[in-house]
């Protein structure tokens, strides 16, 4: 059954002893067509916050860290031609106040650093070590705050000859799928090959209609009247931090549990996916762990998760679309229903969220954002990095030993990320107040028993 990493591994290093040798700017390798600005969709513009990922590579005889760093730097310069917006800067349109990217070729950041440790000394790469944040360069100190790059890459060498590539991007630039394509292109150009995929940079493809037309109630969204909204409200509570590891066998048993209880249900075998069953399990545990002295069963719990809308639009968006082409799907139920319903019903409710995301629903949600400036609204959001495939990118020095986000503790975000040893397994990162975590843990084990 699933296991829990209650405490940091005994070998966890909290200070990687990083020394930064150099921080510079990388510019497009040749002059790009000067655009006044890049339009940002209503999905893009509410995602104005950093996303940080780290990609670990073992030593390679032909590509020591300094050689890999130079190849990456050169490849990034080449990539800034087709990805010209990445070398730009965030600005507000002086006439409308709308956030946009000034495509001014001001460059991205590139840092070279070293650690006093070998990669094996770092320990369990799957465990979300806060020290991994040291593998990210968060700003270029020589630049003013309003002139910071939209992307900074840091290459950190380890004593063993391995290295880490830490990438910080503003979320307005990419969603997970388009970032994976960016990495595929980076790997291809680093190897002297042509682009794996030609990026589509036309963000107007997701512009709101004129006039905007909201045709659905959007329970997954809420209004704000501030120019810098949160994605979901943060909490100042003290939180416990645990990783729940589900093996491929655990997930197979959850699928069987859903199928066995599906008599009379509208959920088909095709909908009983790994993501849907794990999300249903997490929803059950999260909703019923709510710490409230009053009756909990009448409370409505709303689960949020992202859905790729590229294939759902008419006509479909290009797979190579570089912007954020994900919208928030939702599932809602009372805690009583979540407690008493068969597992197949929870899975069915989860699947309905994605099924709801038709072309018209997606356009309605985008138009809703034009009118109300909305952001996701729910009890918690499942953020899945599970099947993005960052660790499948083939660089000249091989695939990453592991790729992961640099995580932070949020009560309202539950993170799915892949396992290093089990391709079909998943790690579920949960942050909750101590009393709620105790309930979550009990429910988790009970459901898997």
Automatic annotation (TrEMBL):
Q: Which InterPro entries match?
A: CAT-like_dom_sf, Plant_Fungal_Acyltransferase
What domain of life is recorded for the organism? Eukaryota
Recorded GO MF terms: acyltransferase activity, transferring groups other than amino-acyl groups
Report any Pfam family annotated for this entry.
Transferase
Sequence similarity: Belongs to the plant acyltransferase family.
Q: What is this protein called?
A: Omega-hydroxypalmitate O-feruloyl transferase
Which species is this UniProt entry from? Gossypium raimondii (Peruvian cotton)
């Amino acid at each position: 059954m699933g296991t829990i990493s209650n405490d940091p591994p005994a070998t966890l290093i909290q200070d990687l002893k990083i020394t930064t040798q150099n921080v510079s700017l990388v510019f497009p390798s040749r002059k790009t067509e000067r655009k006044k600005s890049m339009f940002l969709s209503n999905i893009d513009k509410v995602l104005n916050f950093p996303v940080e990922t780290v990609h670990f590579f073992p030593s390679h005889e032909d590509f020591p860290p300094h050689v890999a760093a130079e190849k990456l730097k050169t490849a990034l310069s080449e990539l800034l031609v087709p990805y010209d917006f990445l070398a730009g800067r965030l600005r507000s349109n002086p006439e409308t106040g709308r956030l946009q990217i000034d495509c001014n070729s001001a460059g991205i950041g590139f840092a070279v650093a070293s650690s006093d440790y070998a990669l094996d000394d770092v320990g369990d790469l799957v465990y979300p070590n806060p020290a991994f944040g040291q593998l990210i360069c968060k700003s270029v100190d020589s630049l003013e705050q309003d002139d910071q790059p939209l992307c900074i890459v840091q290459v950190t060498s380890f004593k063993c000859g391995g290295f880490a590539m830490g990438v910080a991007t503003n979320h307005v630039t990419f969603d997970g799928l388009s970032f994976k394509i960016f990495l595929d292109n980076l790997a291809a150009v680093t190897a002297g090959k042509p682009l794996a995929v030609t990026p589509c940079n036309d963000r107007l493809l997701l512009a709101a209609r004129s006039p905007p037309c909201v045709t659905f109630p959007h329970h997954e969204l809420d209004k704000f009247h501030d120019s810098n909204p949160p994605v979901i409200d943060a909490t100042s509570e003290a939180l416990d931090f645990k990783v729940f590891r589900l093996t491929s066998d655990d997930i197979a048993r959850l699928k069987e549990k859903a199928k066995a209880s599906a008599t009379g249900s509208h959920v088909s075998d095709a909908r009983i996916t790994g993501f849907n069953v794990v999300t249903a399990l997490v929803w059950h545990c999260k909703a019923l762990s709510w710490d409230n002295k009053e009756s909990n069963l009448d409370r409505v719990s709303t689960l949020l998760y992202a859905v790729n809308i590229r294939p759902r639009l008419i006509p479909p968006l290009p797979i190579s679309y570089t912007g954020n082409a994900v919208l928030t799907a939702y599932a809602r139920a009372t805690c009583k229903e979540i407690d008493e319903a068969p597992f197949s019903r929870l899975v069915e409710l989860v699947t309905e969220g994605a099924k709801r995301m038709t072309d018209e629903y997606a356009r309605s949600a985008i138009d809703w954002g034009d009118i109300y400036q909305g952001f996701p609204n729910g009890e918690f959001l499942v953020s899945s990095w599970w099947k993005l495939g960052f660790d499948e990118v083939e660089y000249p020095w091989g695939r990453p030993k592991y790729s992961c986000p640099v995580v932070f503790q949020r009560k309202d975000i539950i993170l799915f990320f892949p396992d290093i040893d089990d391709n079909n397994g998943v790690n579920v990162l949960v942050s909750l107040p101590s009393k709620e975590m105790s309930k979550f843990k009990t429910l988790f084990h009970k459901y898997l028993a």
